[in-house]
Amino acid sequence: MVRLVLFDVDGTLIRTRGAGVEAFARTFAAEFGIRDGVKGVQFAGRTDRSLVREVFVRHDVPATEANFLRFFGRYVVELEDLLHGNGGHVIPGVWEFLRALQALARPPVLGLLTGNIRLGAELKLRRFGLWEWFRVGGFGDDHEDRSQIAAVARDRASRMLGDVLRGDQIVVVGDTPHDVRCGRAIGARVLAVATGGCPAADLRPLQPDWLVEGLGQVSAAEVCSATLS
User: Fold this and answer.
1) What is the pLDDT along the chain (229 residues), one digit of tens a residue?
2) Which of 45, 65, 83 lies at the terminal end of a domain, its last residue?
3) CATH code where residue 182 lies
4) Domain of 59?
């Protein structure tokens, strides 16, 4: 039986209408004098630290811990401001799927597996009333490699539950190839949703266990059953 379900954030649970990308752009400009710093940068499925490192390298900014701290200290301020002005919404089907998971006779722990730094994920999810649903997670400030973040999330959940979780007891839910690959890296089942910028045709070759256009097309009971149907 599935004991842990880990969710990606952007494109899987919520859309922020570009607040995160714009917060990156504003921070690079304000703190490092880099204009158009995010031009040509692919954000989907990436970790925040890897994105910052890419821009630092492009513009010859030393990728020191002090500069990362400087960036993220300003970024969360910009992000919070933008989240209250940009709109955005919870993706259709999310609320119903979360409620259905919690209504199961043996509900799994709900967690996050995201490239967002922890405070960034919290700001985004609190904006839409979702943060309190999740008890554990792995975040972009845990590691730059998403597969390592998956391992962190698994290990934190194992400690919380007092038991070592096997891969077949975990489901990863995400909207990009990065989500599928990091789920596979810890032996988890993967529910891929074509709700972000990646179409189902691009997710299908990675052979997720489920591939749906939205969370309204799959039942919580099926995802958390002992065997795939």
Assistant:
1) 899 999 999 999 999 999 999 999 999 999 999 998 899 888 888 999 999 999 999 999 999 999 999 999 999 999 999 999 888 999 999 999 999 999 999 999 999 999 999 999 999 999 999 999 999 999 999 999 999 999 999 999 999 999 999 999 999 999 999 999 999 999 999 999 999 989 999 999 999 999 999 999 999 999 998 655 4
2) 83
3) 3.40.50.1000
4) 19-83
Residue 32 and residue 102 in one domain: no
CA angle at 174 for the pair 172 and 176, rounded to the nearest 5°: 130
Residues with Cβ within 8 Å of 10's Cβ and at least 6 positions away in sequence, in order, are 16, 20, 44, 114, 116, 124, 196
Q: For residue 163, how far is the Cα from the chain centroid? A: 24
**pTM value > 0.85:** yes
64 and 143 co-located in one domain: no
